[in-house]
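WARN retry 2 of 3 for item q-0093 after timeout on previous attempt; input resubmitted unchanged.
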Amino acid sequence: MILSERQILQQVNEAIAAIEYPPQPKGLYEPIRYVLSIGGKRIRPVMMLLTAQALGCDIRKVMPAAVGLETYHNYTLLHDDLMDRADMRRGMPTVHRKWDSNTAILSGDSMLVLACKHILSTPLPRKGEAMNVFVHTALQIGEGQQYDMNFETRNDVAQDEYIEMIRLKTSVLIACAAKMGALLANADDQVADSLYRFGEQIGLAFQLQDDLLDVYGDPQVFGKRIGGDILCNKKTFLLINAMQLANTSQREQLNSWINRKNFDEQEKISTITEIYNQLDIRQLTAERINYYFMQAQHTLNNIPLSQEGKQSLRDFANSLINRPA
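OK item q-0093 returned
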C-alpha cells in the first residue's frame, strides 16, 4: 500500500520524537531535542521516503536515514540563525537566544555527527553510497552559504549567480533526499540520478516560491513576516531582476532604500513592493518557478516508476510549489 504524504510525515514526526539521547550533559542534548521538536515541513525526509516507497522499498528500513537528513537540515538552520542573529524560528526562540551562542555552536556540531550516525545505522546494503551522496551535498551547502554571505556586500549579483547559490544552499539537499531514497531502495544508478535531477528542479522552484511569498504571501499562511527579505536588503530573484529592469528613477529609489540606515519598515516594504509591481516582477518570478516546475514534471514522467509511486511524488511536488500566496 502506498502511504500518503501526510501519513509519511506523521511517521517521520513519530520517529524524531522517539529518538533517545544520553541523559547528560543536558546542556548539549536539550537544545538538539528542542530544535527537532518545534516542527517544520520535514520536506527532505518525506521526499526520501516517498522516493524509496515509489521504488517498492519498506520505508521503515529507510527511516534512520530520513531522520539523519532532517537532523542535518536542522543543524544548518541552527547555525544559520546564529550567523543571522535571528531571534525566532518557527515562532519559537532560536537556540542562541534561548541558551547562548556557544551552546548553539556545540549542539549544532553534535547534530552533524548525529546525522551521520543515523544514516550509517540504516539497515540497507547501499547505505555507504547514500552516505557518500550526503557528504558531497553537505559540502555543497556550505559553499552555497558562503556565496550567500558574499552577496551581502555586493550590489552586482547576477541572476545566474543567484540561481547557482540557491541550487547549492537549498536545492541540492532536496535532490540528495531523492537520490538517497533511490539508492537505499536499490534503484539502478540512472534512476537514482534522474530522481536527483527531479529533486534539484523542484528545489529551485521551491526556493523561488519562497522568495515570492516573502513579498506577496499571506503571513498567516507563510509563517514568516512578509517583507523580511526587503528589510534586510537580501539579494533575491525579485530584487536582482528589479535592479536590472528598473529605469533610472526606480533604480535610484531602490538604492536609496537599500543604503538607508534609519527608515520606517512598512514604508520601505510598500515602496519597494510597488516598484516590483511596476516592473511586473511577480509575474517574472512566477514564470521562472513554473519553468523549473515543468522541468521537474518532465524529468519525473521519464523515470520508470509505477503510476501510483509517480503520482505520489507528483502530488508532493505540487504541494511544495502551490503554496498559497
